[in-house]
């Protein structure tokens, strides 16, 4: 088996605009060499590969779907990218996003790799996108996919430009009690872009790195050695207050926190996902 990773597959897809299966076959043939795989894709004459290579797809849209499942709901959020905002607002591109989302939902895909391999009509989502890219004349990339299951899933889509489709999308998973504030929390997430739901979601590696940065910064500022532990803990606490959803000051009432807003309902928020196009 050729020596390559999922990251190599994604890098080659972004570089060439080729479909998932074509990329894997090319990497197999090239024994994992990405440059050689690019040449293989070109030689095979895949539509638009050479023309779209190296282009950046940083425009586009986000779109969501929520469906009832056993025990609750499942929400799916995707980000589909184009090269220009002109294509992003094109009816064909918007329709493509709808088709892709429907296929991703039907497959129950929870990440981009699974989504690209999902069936649609007589092909895969990856190949379907590539064919559409040839028609639209731009590199089109399914960048991200998120799936949340919870008793209730709420959504919020935000247009940063009234002439374009939604650029920010949020899903919030909660129980029935917290659902009464879930949309407000989704709007908060869209604006404040938290990284974690609770502090425990941060990895040990992230915490260690934040401690290191805080300590090195304090030393560079000339803080006394004896005060460093307290300073480091204070700055780590500040990091979590800025990046943890339940610790953030609530957008609609900064005198309280999102955590306290949830607590007042007697319910729980269990998960969230947030995409901003190109970010």
What layout of secondary structure does this protein have?
Elements: H1 6-16, H2 20-29, H3 34-43, H4 49-52, E1 59-69, E2 72-82, H5 85-88, H6 91-107, H7 112-116, E3 119-120, E4 123-124, H8 125-136, E5 141-150, E6 152-158, E7 168-174, H9 179-192, H10 204-220, H11 228-243, E8 249-250, E9 253-257, H12 258-265, E10 269-276
Antiparallel strand pairs: 1-2, 2-5, 3-4, 6-7, 7-10, 8-9
User: What distance separates the N and C termini?
Assistant: 34 Å
How many H/I helices?
Answer: 12
Helix content: 40-55%
CATH secondary-structure class of the domain at 59-196 and 267-276 = Alpha Beta
> Which structural class best describes the helix and strand composition?
alpha+beta
Query: What summary fits the major beta sheet?
Result: 3 strands, antiparallel
Unreliable segments (pLDDT under 50, ≥5 consecutive)?
none
Strand order of the largest sheet: 1-2-5
